[in-house]
Design brief:
This protein has about 150 residues and is of the alpha+beta class. The protein folds into 2 domains: about 45 residues, Helicase, Ruva Protein, domain 3, CATH 1.10.8; about 90 residues, 2-Layer Sandwich (Tetrahydropterin Synthase, Chain A), CATH 3.30.479.20. The protein is built from 6 helices and 5 strands. A hairpin with a 5-residue loop joins strand 1 and strand 2.
């Protein structure tokens, strides 16, 4: 069996949010195949996301983005279950990315839009990835975009 490096464990754990022991076990079962392990762990993460959908999201944060021209601004309300997650770096990054997305592409059907930084993913997938990594339900609240002259 192939020896599994700590760097590989760390990389897959960061990408999937799975526990170190789970990552190690999956890699061992798949004889060190990183791509298959990522696939399995992401699938497990998305299954956990489905279980969290109905949970209350009474905490969160408001994110804004102002274009450098000063002519477009967006405001995004991102909700989660606890203030602990609202202060998490993953949640912060998600909120900032969604605010940038709204300023660039508008607020219509935001969750179905392709992410401007990575068109292979939709905004809804970004949200699900953070849910899988934090273990909490996260959802979009109110979303606004204002453009000067429109």
């Amino acid at each position: 069996m192939k020896k599994i490096s700590i760097e590989t464990l760390r990389k897959i754990r960061e990408e999937t949010g799975a526990g170190v022991m789970r990552v190690k076990k999956v890699l061992e079962e798949l004889d060190g195949n990183e791509n298959k392990a990522l696939e399995v762990l992401k699938k497990e993460g998305f299954e956990k996301v489905a279980k969290r959908e109905g949970r209350n999201t009474g905490e969160g944060k408001v994110f804004t983005y102002s274009h450098h021209t000063g002519k477009v601004v967006s405001v995004v309300e991102l909700l989660c279950e606890t203030d602990f997650v609202a202060k998490n770096d993953l949640f912060e990054e998600l909120g900032k990315n969604i605010a940038l997305q709204v300023a660039s592409m508008g607020e219509e059907k935001i969750e179905d839009q392709e992410f401007i930084k990575d068109p292979s993913k939709k905004i809804s997938e970004l949200i699900k990835e953070v849910i899988a990594k934090t273990g909490e339900n996260i959802r979009l609240g109110r979303v606004f975009r204002v453009e000067l002259g429109k």
